Amino acid sequence: MIARKKRVSEAIGLDVGSTTAKMVRIEDGEVQSRITGTHNWKDLVNGIKENIISTGYFRNSVPHTASVTEITAAIYGVRHYFPEADVIVDIGGQDTKVVDIRKNNFLINDKCGAGTGAFLEFAANYFSIGLDELGLFHRRAGRIPDINNTCGVFAISEMISQLVAGYSKEEVVAGMHYAFARRISFMVPEAETIVLIGGAAKNEGMVMALKDILKKKILIPEEPQVINALGALKYFS
Amino acid sequence: MHVSKIGLTALVPPELIFACGGEPVDVNNIIPASKKYPRNKLCAWTAIWKEMLVERELSVDSLIVVAGGDCHNALVDGQKVAMSGIPTHFFFYPFDGDPEYLESQLYGLSGFLGGIKFPEKIKQINDLKKLGQKIDIKRSRGRITSGEAFNILISFSDLRGNLEEFQKNIASIKEHSIKTGNRIALIGVPPIFCDFHDVAQSLGLHIVFDELPYEFIRHRGANIREIACDYREYTFARPLDFRINFLQKELEKRKVDGIIHYTQFACHHMLEDEIIRSRLDYPVLTIQGDLPGNTPQQIKLRLEAFREMLERL
Ligand code: SF4
User: Fold this and answer.
1) Most buried of A16, A214, A220, B183 (most Cβ within 10 A)?
2) What is the pTM (predicted TM-score) of this model?
């Protein structure tokens, strides 16, 4: 355990999560980042001379000078872009974390797959489309069927029933995004500004559904997937 | 002489069991280190002791189930044990703290156990509880690890069935000098993980207060009347207001920096979380366990993040 306030100069932030690995370095004030699959994390640090500040699920399994949890890293990363943020919603591959910055409080859902990136991947696989196509499908939907199940596995059976009932693939995808967003909204406290990070923040269908349900301003940093790597770096610099 | 082994499902005055010539066994104590995966379960604590008793993997001559003022899962699983043929007595604490009611419960219990035969045991146990309080103070001052202190304090529910041996166990505790940087109160039912206190300490969280074990060393009395008048303040059996007022004073006394509220899957105490959060003015980390074993990674992540959070304040 490294003493918290010890500053580390010449460093990179490395976030090795359950599905992807991200690396961030700040050069002349510019945030530069790279993303790869978790198992290829080594590609991100090959030939690196700087100190590594790690975070993410595998933070203690990769070489590092210091490490910090994703929860704290998220706060420091988000503040870089949005110093006034109240609440962070971080939708990762295996869990969803909600951090209330004002109250110094956090919630993690890692028991149920329904509110995690794994569920979106599962749904995309079912329709044989890429994760990045879910947003496109959502925009094409004319109606939004009700999908009430909060369990990921049963939500898929409900989606199948809605297809049988005559809804289009696009509509069922939109319904699925609403079910997903509803699940996450239960974790989100009252707040003015909510910052959404993690891979799922790139899915505009999910973001639209979340905005509609929370009725709050949702901010998304330009590259939402690398915020924790950036935060790890900033925590120690 | 045959000494009857008396299983206990929660806090029952152990002084009365010893005084009646029985050897108490808190049936929960073997659970954190057990590898049992119960078949039909809500809370794993009751499900595991129920299964072990029904299948006679845990041997007791009779069982005392703390039902009223404690746990309805225990009330149901206790009846399953009774149906399996083990003599079982149901013990009820008064929600309103009525000492007469508790006294009558204690007389009923003593009748079930055959009456008081060794009144001198009561004083012996009271003296051991004083030693327990010393251990509690020492760990809060960083002179005993929280893991060692917890192992002793949690054992005060049955004094490991043997007063002389238990006294030796207490005497053998080594003193250290531990930095108690992040002072934590662990409230709720005890974690079902066997290494929780050591894990917390290794992650920079020093547990200076264990809510339930503290109840085990706090109540006493020289006879049934006095025991009733003191145990009626057993906070877990009383209304939440009573418990929270008590906690407020204890946490202040111990200069706590944060609270870990442990909850057990399918336990009604989980419903208390929002009240605890709103009424106790400290950072609160709520965690939940289900099956016994080592502290899972997901819980470790929460502990580590909580420490980072406390250090940011
Ligand atoms: S953890 Fe809750 S449900 Fe389980 S035995 Fe204890 S009080 Fe009962």
Assistant:
1) A16
2) 0.91
The residues that bridge with B209 in the sheet, in sequence order, are B185
DSSP string spanning B207-240? EEEEHHHHHHHH---SSHHHHHHHHTT-GGGS-H
**Domains by residue range for chain A, with CATH:** 11-82+223-235 (3.30.420.40), 107-219 (3.30.420.40)
Nearest by CB to residue B308, choosing from A72, A105, A108, is A72
Distance CA B107, CA B104 (A): 5
DSSP code at position B202: H
Of B203, B305, B311, the CB nearest to A4: B311
**Residue B308 and residue A105: Cβ atoms within 8 Å?**
no
- Residue B120 Cα distances to B5, B108, B126, B157, angstroms: 19, 20, 10, 18
Residue A134 to residue A88: CA distance in whole angstroms: 23
B170 part of a folded domain = no
Q: Do B308 and A104 touch (CB under 8 A)?
A: no
Query: Which pLDDT tens digit goes with each residue over A32-79?
Result: 999 999 999 999 999 888 999 999 999 999 999 999 999 999 999 999
d(CA B249, CA B245): 7
